[in-house]
Amino acid sequence: MRKDLGSLPGVFPMPVLMVATYGEDGKVDVMNVAWGNICGMDKIALNLATERKTLKNIRAKNAFTVALADEAHVKEADFLGTASGNVMADKFERTGLHAVKSKHVDAPIIEEFPVTLECKVEEIRDSFGEVKVTGTIVNVSADEKVLDENGKINAGKLNAIMFDQFQNTYYTTGKKIAEAWRAGAEYMKK
Fold it and tell me: Which residues of the chain form beta strands (DSSP E)?
């Protein structure tokens, strides 16, 4: 039996994306964004509230990075999604994380997060009281510890975390269950 739950943001899993920028003062700013995902072969879309410091920085620099949060840094990721850079000037410093400048865009890479997408702003559009930011991915950098023997990112090694909007909890990835574009191949034979 099914039960109606009303209108809610009911998609699972939601990736936990760590969006990093530089402020006009050169300080690193990072926020946890659950509402974002790939929207093309070299595009990523983020949905940000209008008052976010990160959004102001994105508008000023026309660049940002998006890291995949991992299990080892769930506390830092959660804090960066809870604290506001508009209120807490030392938000990033409190985490003990480290940043280096991207070689490809004017934005920081957080060294502890194993995979980072380096992005240039493609479009910023106000929509439904929030702001949609679309970025072009110009490079992806990854820590060698999450790569397989062919130099590709291995999700089993990544231990990326996912946000569950139903229970307000985090889960981790890692268990491979099937090969994409092969698991349903038997239905092609009918």
Answer: 14-15, 17-22, 28-33, 36-40, 43-49, 63-68, 99-101, 108-110, 115-127, 130-142, 161-164, 169-172
Element (H, E) at 153: none
Q: Give the residues across from 18 on adjacent strands.
A: 32, 67
Q: What confidence tier does 85 reach under pLDDT thresholds 50, 70, 90?
A: confident
Contacts 24+ apart (CB under 8 A), 3-12: 8/165, 8/166, 9/35, 9/165, 10/165, 10/166, 11/165, 12/162, 12/164, 12/165, 12/166
Whether the predicted pLDDT of 190 surpasses 90: no
Report the half-sphere exposure of 64 (CA within 13 A, side-chain side).
33
